């Protein structure tokens, strides 16, 4: 038993250090994002994420923003459970007919000034679903959209760039 325990403790760390070329870009975007959030809000940016009918690909990338690797909270961005506490809505997916009313209510419940970000190809254009009996298509067909982040799905760095673009739009 002790032999097995000793054997498991002796190798030490066997993984390689992470080296990703997007690290520097992530830091650069994050610092600029933090600066703009401080200038506009004087506090953190609160985001309410709404899945309006997506395949969950975009949600996986949004969740990656909160993991220890990207750690978006260090830049002053956090996600909230209520639209009443949000500064922005981050909407994914083509808006299904079943989510149309819920998205409108969420948009109305978000206090002004607010901005809406359509994340992913489906949210931006309706994707392959378009407008049909089951889908309203793009988010802008239901609520006004300030910034679109294309991609299927957009990467976490793309999402941060979209947040930065939304803050630039708001300050202009």
From TrEMBL:
Organism: Imhoffiella purpurea
Residues of the NADH:ubiquinone oxidoreductase-like 20kDa subunit domain: 55-165
Lineage, opening ranks: Bacteria, Pseudomonadati, Pseudomonadota, Gammaproteobacteria, Chromatiales
Stated family: Belongs to the complex I 20 kDa subunit family.
Superkingdom in the source lineage: Bacteria
An MF annotation (GO) of this entry: lyase activity
Cofactor list: [4Fe-4S] cluster
Keyword field contains 4Fe-4S: yes
Protein name, as recorded: Formate hydrogenlyase subunit 7
